[in-house]
Specification:
Layout (H helix, E strand, L loop, with lengths): L2 H6 L7 H31 L17 H7 L3 H31 L6 H13 L2 H11 L6 H8 L21 H29 L3 H9 L4 H29 L3 H5 L12 H11 L3 H34 L2
Helix pairs in contact: 2-13, 3-13, 4-8, 4-10, 5-8, 8-10, 10-13, 12-13
Amino acid sequence: MSEAEASSGVGLGDRDHLLGWLMLAPSLIYIAALVGLPFFLAIALSVTSATVGDPSIHGFVGLGNFVQVLHESAFPLALRNSVIVTLATLILTLVLATAESELLVRDFRGKRLLQILLILPWAMPVSLAAIDWLWLLDSEFSPVDWLLRHMHLLGPGSPLGPANHLYYYGKEWLGLGAIVMINVWRLLPFATIIVLAGRTSIPRDIFEQAQVDGAGFFRTLFSITLPALLPILMVASMFTALLVFGDMAVTALTTRGGPGYATQVLPYWAYLKGIDGGALSEGAAVALFMFPVLLVGAILALRMAYRTDSQGDQP
C-alpha cells in the first residue's frame, strides 16, 4: 500500500477490483488444478497411442482415436443412453423439486422431520445409494416386486406380465429406468434446495394479491410461480444435467452397462476403454465427446437464465 493510500485511509477492503480477484483466487486455483490440467492432459492423450502400460504421451495419431471410437457399435448406444438418462432425470427432478418447494414453503406439523428425510439421499454417498437400490431392485428378493405382486400388478394375469419378477437390471428399458430413478432419488434434495431458495425469494404480497383476485393454485403456479422461478430452474437444470451426464458410478454399480451395451453410458464406457481396457488414448477420446455437449448446454442455460432475469428486472 502506498503512502498516499495509507494517508487517505484507503485499505484493501476499499479496492473492489483487487479484493474481487483475491476472493476468486481459491476457486480459480481449484478449477485450474483439478479441471484445467486433466482436461488438457485428456486432449494430449486422445491424439496419441498412450496405453496403461505406457502412459507417456508419444506416437501422435491425430484424430485416429476419435475415428476408431465412432466406428464402434457401443458408441451410438452409449451416447443415446447418456442423453436419455440425462433428459429423463432432469425433467423428473425439476418437476418433483418444484412440487416439494411448494410443499416446504408452507407451515405444517412435521415439516422439520420431512426436511431431514428429504435431505438424506443427498447426504448419502452415491456408492451406498446405488448399492441400496441394487438390493431394492434385486432380481429375486426385490421388495418392489413383492409390493407389485400384492397389488396384483405383477404375476399371472396381471398388467405387468405373468412373471413374478421384473429383472430390472437385466432388461434394456427397465435398466435405464432404474438408473433414472436412482439419479432422481439422490439429486432431488439438491435441486429442491435450489428451487426452494428461489421460491422463498418471491414476495408474498404477490400471492396474497392473486388470492384476493380469486386465482386458484394451478393458475397461480403457472402464471406467477413458474415464470418467477425460471432463472432458478435454469440454474438447477444446468447443475443437474452436468452431474448426471458426467456420472458413471450408478451405472457401474448397478447394470454395468448391460445387458450387452443396452444401458451403457459415455462416462462408464470411457472408463472401460481407458482404464479397464488399457487404451488410455481411446478412453480420453470417448471422454472428450462429452465436453461439447456439456459446454453448449451450460452456455444455453446460463444465457437463458440471464435473459429471463434481465427481463424480470425491467420496469
